[in-house]
Amino acid sequence: MPHYILAQLIGAFLAAALVFGVYHTRWIQFDPALTNTAGILTSFPGVSGLGFWGSFVDLLVGTAILMILILAIGDRFNNAKGTT
């Protein structure tokens, strides 16, 4: 399990670094101070000023929705009746 978690973290950081490297020059052209494009590589709550618990619930619900969709798509028994 620790190897899996470490691999996921390393993959996430490498993917973020790749996106940053590819699009950095365009971000600088569009937003030199990076004030409007900061949310591209991070996740912020949908509504600002929620505080810790409001932000926590916002991200918890968003993550739950994503996990439900991923599990529903990946479930081999989630087919219409009569299809394989």
Report on the structure:
There is one protein chain. The chain is mainly α and 84 residues long. 63% of the residues lie in helices and 0% in strands. The chain folds into two domains: 1-42; 43-84. The radius of gyration is 18 Å and the shape is extended.
List the keywords.
2 helices, extended, 84 residues, single chain, 2 domains, mainly alpha
Number of strands: 0
Number of helical segments with 4 or more residues = 2
The termini sit apart by 32 Å
Task: Show unreliable segments.
Answer: none
**Class per helix and strand makeup:** mainly alpha
What is the alpha-carbon Rg in Å? 18 Å
Give a quick rundown of the structure.
The protein has two helices and no strands. With 84 residues, the chain is mainly alpha-helical. The protein has two domains: 1-42; 43-84.
What topology does this entry show?
Layout: H1 2-30, H2 51-74
